[in-house]
Amino acid sequence: MTDLIYLTDSYQKELKTKVVSAEKRGNLWEVVLASTVFYPEGGGQPSDRGTITTKNGKAHVKHVRMKGELVIHECTLEGMLKPDDDVQCVIDWNLRYHNMRVHSAGHIVHEAIKKISPSLLPKKGHHMDSAYIEYAGSLPIDKKYAIEQESNTIVGDKLPLKTELVTLAELQRRSPWAPEHLPKNKPLRILSIGDLAPIPDGGTQVKTSDEVGPITITNIDNAGDVVRVYYSIQTEGPKEASIESENSMKAPAFIGLLLEAQQNAIREMETSDASAFELRLQLLGPKSELTALTRQMRQVPAADRQQVGIVVNQVKKAIEEKLTERKTPSSSPNKTPTIGTARTDTFDVTMPGIRPPAGHLHIVSQAIMEITRIFERIGFTRVRYPEADWDWYAFESLNMPVNHPARDEWETFFIDYPGKPGKDPHKQKMVLTPHTSNGQVREMEKGNLPIRMINIAKCYRRQIDVSHTPMFHQFEGLYVDKNVSIAHLKGVFDYFAGAFFGPGRKTRLRPFHFQFTEPSFEVDITCGICNGTGILAGGTKCRLCKSGWLELGGSGMVHPNVLRNGGIDPDVYSGFAFGWGVERTAMMKSGTQLDDIRLLYDNDVRFLEQF
Ligand code: DAH
């Protein structure tokens, strides 16, 4: 069993120890030491790199992994290294310290999430580039700010991060949560941040929370039954990193390693008498130095990866070309299988394919699906009505006769109806529906009571500016039955607010006027960022709502005239209705303030892929 120094001291950068074994596998050496300071990849943290030096040689550690109870250091080797040799190990401290900070940040973010949404069950952490923590369950995306604030409070509080080696019984007693599979091949350890409950952990951690520096919650991604909370930290830490500011995984350093791998491969080709097939496998196959390096590409900042990717391809091509040029030495017996001979048209079946970019639904489509699902749960059915409809359904039947001034609020597109209008007074003029309320009387005309409809459709108005697009979406709810009251309306709104925006959100009704409802209201919802107070933790005004409330849209009790127009007796039945904008509601959920709403329909993938 390799003695794991990093488990008890994550700041130890060097170590004198002995070689237990050293074997050449493909192009790399697999070195086992009596004890190690190198962190083997695991628990979501990438492995360390560095050097192992002996009297007669120097091994460059490219990747480290656990195999049973042994730590395998995968290295390239200059000179000699053999069992029993005394060695001096030095880890790449910049890389380690960065990995440590990212890992500790993950635990801090987890503590913040636990406070904000205690019921979420952690599944795994990914503490590298594009770092995230994954939970079973879901989390409203506007919790982003609260989690970020809470995380940075922990950072600012300079809390100690303490690790302790424990027995299984002790771990189960002290940690309220443990992963399904605890490691069997290494000592168990728990980590506690300040007085917070300990949690099992085997990674390397900083000593105090402020070493992590500011944390940003970059995204909350709900997919199926799991949610990933993505976070990032600043590349340079506030303390240690300023001493050694150069992060060795920046593109130039990584490119240096790639070129070194290319040199090693060329040297190998010049000296080895292996067959072309064997050499190809050794230099480009899954166990090659180049493949080991490309696996670590995610440690390069995302912005530089394209540049590094180009060099990876160039190095691969250079090795390929050299392999093709190289003739199998005529003296060696030709044991090469035909498919492996150096032909220019060989096809490397081990090479990973190129994934086509995968898209996702537009944020408005996502919101429409979610809104439909939420209302379906309480018995509403989604319906569809024409988007080019008679003026009667869009206005007249809604208590707005021709020439009524209230119509002016809907900047309506009237459209030519082919042919002459017939005798039916309700089928005279046509409009592009300026709101989804045209569905109300159409639904009533079906004659099925009670009515619980949700009509989601495109709407059109003659408006285009930073807060209007000529085409947008609304969702219209209508509930008609005996004894429907304002209490039902309020109950449904509170249910929707909780289901769509997250638990704890409340609604309020403000008196308003619409022709088709009496009484009429505008509905507001408590702001998710300041929890309805209008004030943030430090006493500053909330930048999203300013008042604690955000406006959702219009609603009211259906006007008796409208019920009559739909053939329903207002003395027996009553109902409520509401009509809200999909775009607005969706943006409110993500907490995004768009300076220009037209961006939603510009079809610029760089913008759309953020949602
Ligand atoms: N149709 C209205 C609009 O576009 C919104 C609305 C208000 C719909 C009140 C309703 C309602 O159903 O009851 O501004």
Gist?
The chain has 611 residues and is an alpha+beta fold. The chain has helices spanning 93-116, 144-156, 168-174, 240-243, 251-271, 276-284, 289-295, 305-325, 363-376, 391-394, 438-445, 486-501, 560-565, 582-590, 605-608, and strands spanning 3-4, 14-25, 28-33, 35-36, 50-53, 57-67, 70-79, 86-91, 121-126, 132-136, 161-166, 188-193, 199-200, 215-223, 226-233, 381-383, 388-390, 414-415, 430-432, 451-460, 471-481, 507-512, 517-526, 549-558, 574-581.
Summarize the helices and strands and which ones pair or pack.
Layout: E1 3-4, E2 14-25, E3 28-33, E4 35-36, E5 50-53, E6 57-67, E7 70-79, E8 86-91, H1 93-116, E9 121-126, E10 132-136, H2 144-156, E11 161-166, H3 168-174, E12 188-193, E13 199-200, E14 215-223, E15 226-233, H4 240-243, H5 251-271, H6 276-284, H7 289-295, H8 305-325, H9 363-376, E16 381-383, E17 388-390, H10 391-394, E18 414-415, E19 430-432, H11 438-445, E20 451-460, E21 471-481, H12 486-501, E22 507-512, E23 517-526, E24 549-558, H13 560-565, E25 574-581, H14 582-590, H15 605-608
Parallel strand pairs: 1-4, 16-20
Antiparallel strand pairs: 2-3, 2-8, 3-7, 5-6, 5-8, 6-7, 9-10, 10-15, 11-12, 12-13, 14-15, 17-19, 18-19, 20-21, 21-25, 22-23, 23-24, 24-25
Helix pairs in contact: 1-2, 5-8, 6-8, 9-14
The chain binds 3,4-dihydroxyphenylalanine (DAH).
